[in-house]
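User: I'm putting together a teaching handout on how sequence relates to shape, and I'd like one worked example. Could you take NAD-dependent epimerase/dehydratase domain-containing protein from Stylosanthes scabra, show the sequence you're using, and then write out its predicted structure as tokens right after it?

Assistant: Happy to. First the sequence, then the structure tokens directly below it.
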Amino acid sequence: VVVCVTGASGYIASWIVKFLLQRGYTVRATLRDPSDPKKIDHLLKLEGAKERLQVFKADLVEEGSFDSVVQGCHGVFHTASPVLLHVVKDPQSELIDPAVKGTLNVLEACKKSPSVKRVVLTSSICAVAFSDRPKTPQVVVDETWFSDPKFSQTMKSWQWYTVSKTLAEEAAWKFAEKNGIHMVVINPVLVAGPLLQPQVNASVEPILNLINGKKFPNNSFGWVNVKDVAEAHIKAYEIASATGRYCLSERVVHYSELARVLSSLYPTLQITAECEDDEPYVPTYQISQERAKSLEIEFTPLEVSLKETVESFREKNIVNF
Ligand code: NDP
């Protein structure tokens, strides 16, 4: 069976490619720059890559870029989207266009290819949890929630990334429904766990910051293991009854808890117990695991995910202790 993974060099996508190859699929991987060894070498080394990995050049913002790649594919995993969590100069061109137009570009290619039976879209909890609905430790966020881009713009961090993911998922649902595309959406929280790619990606950066002794932000986020996220994508494709959205979160914690867990795992590190501000801690909340469990996902505990992330930093000489 031939499937396509867009943005294949990315943190999550690399694990999806690895698991697909392990399961015997032929994988068409799209990258912006397949000649960049930092983006491609780790994929070429995967088990089964020699026999069943095909590499294609494609860019989200180039119309028609994905047309030939998805021809003949049975499934398409659309993961490519810019993950820029910090301040950006031009949100429209840096985040919103590639997220929204890119997603529609990929779906348009799928519409033109009758071989494509299912699309799995990597959305985010950012498209779910950020609206004026209050979040407290008792509140359970689930897949019926949808973020409000107006609210997201007022958030103290990740505003434009959140807007881009929300608008992209919204546009994707409209397009899929209108054109009869069977789409399943995955909505992960912050992803941690081992890196296959050589460089540090945005979601593990907060862990590196803590190791480097920085004060932690006053915020609460969910965390999930990258292998569970990759597995969920494949299950969402393989399980015939999979439909709609699937939130993926092992646990929501305040950064102070993340720092505490890291300190207890690595007592010799100078991890600070200091917050960036003196405000009351932003409360945690819950995220429903019910639908994720119907995909047969058993969540890896946060402690294990953090340990795997740090060990991966060590192996790649990103940290030296
Ligand atoms: P990475 O930054 O590792 O990967 C992002 C991928 O998107 C890269 O392969 C990148 O390609 C590609 N991309 C970005 N812009 C373009 C473009 N204009 N054209 C083609 N490709 C492009 O991030 P993650 O693996 O973390 O993220 C993957 C997906 O998962 C994203 O959709 C993200 O929003 C989503 N997600 C991530 C979470 C996390 O915590 N990590 C949580 C929830 C959702 P290139 O290598 O060429 O730069």
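A couple of points you could highlight for students: DSSP finds twelve helices and twelve strands in the chain. The chain has a mean pLDDT of 97.
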